[in-house]
Design brief:
heterodimer, A: 114 residues, four-stranded antiparallel β-sheet, 11 strands, 54% strand, B: 111 residues, mainly beta, globular
């Protein structure tokens, strides 16, 4: 199994630009999570999906952030417009049906907004 | 606001010693507890899970849970330089809630 696949690995953009992060979960996993990691705030949950349905998006910082999961094998996290304070590592993770199951993380996307 | 607190460290121990990592959580209804290890520049990976009070051992790792004190710990016996990493404590509450992570404790094992 290829594991959770995220793209791109690195993204450098200018303030105001739209950024789209992509994630392919492990086949058969029903839950997908987007986390953001910074030195100051640690690993923060942004949103998670179960069976492609958003369950909790209370961690999404503001309306500039949006996430979709159109099917079981693909999810996107979009930031529009991006700001320097959005600079962080964004991780996607997936797990089997139960939320208490082991999370498998992707390699992350290092986002730098200049 | 559910919180998971960890001492950021760094915690420095010599090779062969026991490393003790601690975590407290605020939500009394939390049911499941995890320790993830994250090497620098890498993604977190699960190393231990514990669901009931007491100790759970897996090789050189022992997780300890005390729900009354809202306290979770991880002991690493015979620490190796390869154990040098950041250890993240993660907690989940009632069914249907996602993991909440602490900020992590950085462990450095010197040879």
């Amino acid at each position: 199994d290829a594991g959770v696949i995220q793209s791109p690995r690195h993204e450098v953009t200018e303030m105001g630009q739209e950024v789209t992060l992509r994630c392919k979960p492990i086949s058969g996993h029903n839950s997908l999570f987007w986390y953001r990691q910074t030195m100051m705030r640690g690993l923060e949950l942004l949103i998670y999906f179960n069976n492609n349905v958003p369950i909790d998006d209370s961690g999404m910082p503001e309306d500039r952030f949006s996430a979709k999961m159109p099917n079981a094998s693909f999810s996107t996290l979009k930031i529009q417009p991006s700001e320097p304070r959005d600079s962080a590592v964004y991780f996607c993770a997936s797990s089997l049906a139960s939320f208490n199951e082991k999370l498998f993380f992707g390699s992350g996307t290092q986002l730098s907004v200049l | 606001q559910k919180e998971v607190e960890q001492n950021s460290g760094p915690l420095s121990v010599p090779e062969g010693a026991i490393a003790s990592l601690n975590c407290t959580y605020s939500d009394r209804v939390s049911q499941s507890f995890f320790w993830y290890r994250q090497y620098s520049g890498k993604s977190p990976e699960l190393i231990m899970s514990i669901y009931s009070n007491g100790d759970k051992e897996d090789g050189r790792f022992t997780a300890q849970l005390n729900k009354a004190s809202q306290y979770v710990s991880l002991l690493i016996r015979d620490s190796q330089p390869s154990d040098s990493a950041t250890y993240l404590c993660a907690v989940t509450g009632q069914a249907g809630t996602a993991l909440i992570f602490g900020k992590g404790t950085t462990l450095s094992v010197s040879s």
